[in-house]
Amino acid sequence: MGTLIFNGVSTLDLGVVIQTPPVYEFPSKRFDVVQIQGRNGDLIIDKNSFNNVNREYNLASVFRKNDSFIENVRVLVDWLSSASGYARLEDSYEPDYFRLAMYRSGGQLPNFYDQATAMIVKFECKPQRFLKSGEIQLDVDFTGIWVEIINPTKYVALPEIEIVGGFTYIDVANGVDHNNPDGLTRVTLDDPSIAVETIIIDSDLQDAYTPTKYVNNEISISNGFVTLQPGSNWIKINPIVGDGTTSVKIKPRWWVL
User: Fold this and answer.
1) Average pLDDT over residues 219-231
2) Going from the N-terminus, what domains does the chain have, and what CATH number goes with each?
3) In the sheet where 247-251 sits, what is the strand order?
C-alpha cells in the first residue's frame, strides 16, 4: 500500500491508501511538422519542450469517522480541489522526486455501505520529475572566482539564485571553456540602491525580485536568464566591495523525465 502527498496533504491523514502502483507515463516531445511542396518527407521543427503527462492512482478510503457518506467524501473532493493551479505531488513509489500537478477532472465515488469508497484519481502533471536534491541550496563563493557546478542530468535546469547584500555582476558559462566572454550569461545590477535587500533571480519565472518588489528594471541580463546545462557549468559572482555581498545561494532545480 502506497501513499501520496498533494498540495501538502498526505493520504495518510485522510485515511486513503493507494491500491496499486501507478503506471509510469513519459511525455511526448513538442514539434511542428511542415510539408513543403516538391520536397519528400516532412520538415521537423523541434520546440525543445514536452507535453504534460498524467499520473493516475487507484485509491480507496475506509471512513474513520461516523459522519455520513456525503460528509466523508466531501473531505476527499475538497482535498483534490484545493489547488487553483499546479501544486506539488509526490508519492512513496518515487521518493526522490516530486511533480507539479493539477487535478481538474471530475469523478465518481461509490458508497460501500456508508463505510468506504474507492476512486481512480488522475492528475495532469508538468512533464518534469524534479529531483528533491535539486531543491537544496548550494552555497557559492562570492569573491570573484570561478566556481564549477555540475548538472548530473541530461536536461537544462532553470535555477533560482539568491543574493544577500547585492552584487555588481554575475557571470555564468556553460561547458568547459568558461574564459570565453562571448559565451557568457551576465547579470548586472544597474541600481546599487537595492543591494541592501535579498535579491532573487528566478530563471524559471524569468523574474528578478526582492521580498518587497520586482526589480527587473534595475537588472540587466545578457544572453538570457541563467541556465545550468548538462555537465559542467561555471559561475562567478563579483561582489559589492565593503559591507556588500554576504551570501549567494543557488537552488539548481534538477529534473528528469
Assistant:
1) 92
2) 4-127 (2.40.30.200), 133-256 (2.60.120.860)
3) 138-139, 247-251, 160-164, 198-202, 207-209
pLDDT digits (tens, 9 = 90+) for 8-37: 999 999 889 999 999 999 999 988 888 888
pLDDT digits (tens, 9 = 90+) for 179-190: 665 678 999 988
**Cα–Cα distance between 1 and 18 in angstroms, integer?**
6
Residues 197 and 211: their CA atoms lie apart, in Å, by 8
Give the span between the Cα atoms of 248 and 251, in whole angstroms: 10
Give every CB contact of residue 237 below 8 A, 6+ residues apart in sequence.
Answer: 140, 141, 142, 143, 144, 163, 167, 170, 245, 248
Contact yes or no for 150/232 (Cβ under 8 A)? yes
CA distance 70 to 212: 44
Distance CA 24, CA 46 (A): 24
Residue type, position 151, single letter: N
Enumerate residues 6+ apart whose C-beta is below 8 A from 38: none
Backbone angles phi, psi at 11, to 5 degrees: -65, -25
The pLDDT tens digits for 98-143 are 999 999 877 888 889 888 889 899 999 999 999 999 999 999 988 8
Indicate the pTM of the whole model: 0.87
